[in-house]
Amino acid sequence: MAEEITYADFERVDIRVGTIIEASPFPDARKPAFKLLIDFGPDIGNKKSSAQITVHYTPESLIGRQVLGVVNFPPRQIGPFRSEVLTLGFEDENGAIVLAAVEQPVPNGRKMM
Question: Going residue by residue through the chain (113 aa), what tens digit of pLDDT does each one get?
């Protein structure tokens, strides 16, 4: 378990829901990944993310899927691609990433509470 934090610490991490509107292979990544474009609603807009989720997903299966992302991390340069959002997921029993998602549709851009 990680170090204990306060609720104020948690509030500083801006986790929002968004819908994947584009997904494509990212052959320049060191580990297999997809390039994603995620719609986080009118206040945040569309953001790019690199996600190592190639074991359980195809680009076609990702379009329209709602995901959770940290939108207030600084952008990260991954080869020629600038990732603006950390898309959230969990490792399965083999270490492959399974996306974190909402159970019911939620308006894009809503903050995790």
Answer: 889 999 999 999 999 999 999 999 999 999 999 999 999 999 999 999 999 999 999 999 999 999 999 999 999 999 899 999 999 999 999 999 999 999 999 999 999 98
